[in-house]
Amino acid sequence: MSWKHQMYLHIYAQHTNHQESFIVGNKQALLKLRDLIDEALVETTAAEGGFFSSDDEGYEVYIGLVKNEEVFQSLEMPYTEQFGDWNDQRHFINLKNDPNAPYDPIILFKETKQAEE
Hints:
It is a single chain. By secondary structure, the chain is an alpha+beta fold. The chain has one domain (about 10-110). Helix content is about 20%, strand content about 15%. It has helices at about 25-45, 70-75, 115, and strands spanning about 10, 20-25, 45-50, 60-65. The strands form 2 sheets. A two-stranded antiparallel ribbon has the order 1-2. It has a two-stranded antiparallel ribbon with strand order 3-4. A hairpin with a 5-residue loop joins strand 3 and strand 4. About 5% of the residues are buried. The model has no long low-confidence stretch (mean pLDDT about 80). This is YCII-related domain-containing protein.
């Protein structure tokens, strides 16, 4: 793989609330990410693109525009830290009237290959 010709991107989520998150990559990857964001805004739908981490393993990034606050409030929190044996979403504070929440963000991408699998 070539640094100049491949889109290298790392997306680091927050471990817990109030911690920082990072998006870092080479120029090609950041430009592609910007294009995907623009596509999601213009098309008001989901956009997806392929990237590589520094170990040359490929993965998809999905960008979605959420138009409905209730849907956004029903999504699980983006934190990576586990609380107990499983992620019990102890920081999930939204939409308490929905016993099925929190939802995995894949619900926003029903039209993608990942959601179908």
